[in-house]
Each structure stands twice: as C-alpha cells, then as structure tokens.
Amino acid sequence: MDYVHRAEREARLARAIAGLSSRQRISLLRIMGDPPKLENVPPEYWNGQFTEWMGVMTPELESIFVDSAELMIADFPGLGVDWNMVNQSAADWARRYGSTLVRDIDARTLQGVRDAVGDFYEQGLTLGQLREKLGRWYGPNRASTLATTETTRAAVEGERGITDDLARQGIVMVEVWQTNNDELVCPLCGPRHGKTEGDGWTRGDGPPAHPNCRCWTTHELPVVAP
C-alpha cells in the first residue's frame, strides 16, 4: 500500500517549507531595497539560504525514510534487519541527497529572482507585482510540490533501505511500481503500474518520476520453484 503517513508528513513538510520561504522572501526584499537591486544581496545571504534549507529538509527526509522502513518491515515479521545499519543509511542518504536537492533549489531560486528583478525594470512593475513574481519561488505552491515529491522519494528510499540490508543477508526482494491505477495517473507512470524493477523501469526512474508524483513501490519475496 501507499505510505500510510503520507498526508500528515506531506502537510508537515509543506508547512515548514512555506514558513521558511516566506521568511526568506521578506528578508530578500528588505536587502534588495527600494528600488530593488540584486547587487545589494551579498553572497552570505545565499549561503545562509542553503544552510536554512538543509536545516528544514535533511531531518524531515531522514525521519520519513526511517518511518517508511519501520512500516515496511512490519509487513514481514519473519525477517530481521540491522537497525543500526538502516538508521545510518537514512542519515547518510538524507545528508547526501538533501545537499543535492537544496543546491538545485537554490540555483533555481536565484535564477527566478534574477528574472523577476529584470522584469521589474524592463516591464515597469510595481513592488507588489515583484512580490507576486517572487511568490513563484517562495510561495505555497512550490512548497506543496516539494513536499509531495520529496515525501514520495524519502518513503521509497526508506523501503529500499530495508531491502538493501536484507540483500546483504542474501534475501533479495522484488520491487514493484504502484500507482492509483485510475484516470488521474500520468502517461509516464501509468505503464509502470504493477511492473517489477527491470521491466521498463529502474531505481533511477523513481518513484518519484516527476514533480508531484505520488507513486510508491511494494516489495515481494521471490517465488521459489517447488
């Protein structure tokens, strides 16, 4: 089944991202001044954004990873894992992937700010219109998309943390891509529904396969021939 704590964890992460983004937008507008000048923003500001984003994303990603791992192994009571190894995998993955994610977020945000400030002068925007444009990068819609996408990713990685530990014990599980299998499923994910890893998709394909993806995977023990 889908990650059972999805709604609650998505909402929590979205609130944290939205709160951080709102504070950062207010700070950015204050530093740029009136009229806004991007050259007024020192490099330290962007470095600080990276640190703030890591402070929000990394612990949440790690927590969802571990929570998903615990839920998965509960479905296989006869199997045991090394929780020290799983917890370390969670911390390592969240720190490594979180850094990559946040650098991408920062790069896209900086480009978005540059474009918005450029439009301010080229199109004669008001400060209110500039704030609205910046909302695309610091607003609730982006927060919601990031929360959905990264909750999916961390939940899937948590289950894979379990299967990786089991594989070290010689127990290789079969991973199966799952969707809601309804009319809302996108053309990319729909054909993967019910397909095992290697049958048209690999781990590198997701889930998530795209922003706002809510697909998940299930795992099965291999069928042993009689």
Any overview of this molecule?
The chain has 226 residues and is mainly alpha-helical. The chain has one domain (6-170). The chain has helices at 6-32, 43-74, 83-122, 127-138, 140-168; strands spanning 174-178, 216-220. α1 crosses α5 (140-168), α2 runs antiparallel to α3 (83-122) and α4 runs parallel beside α5.
**What would you report as the Rg, rounded to the nearest angstrom?**
21 Å
The proportion of strand residues reads under 5%
**Terminal Cα span:** 28 Å
Supply the helix-strand structural class. Answer: mainly alpha
Q: Which overall shape is indicated by the principal axes computed on the Cα atoms?
A: elongated
- Name the average pLDDT: 94
How do you describe this structure in short?
By secondary structure, this protein is mostly helical.
Question: Keywords for this structure?
Answer:
elongated, 62% helix, two-stranded antiparallel sheet, 226 residues, mainly alpha, 4% strand
Please write out the topology.
Blueprint: H1 6-32, H2 43-74, H3 83-122, H4 127-138, H5 140-168, E1 174-178, E2 216-220
Antiparallel strand pairs: 1-2
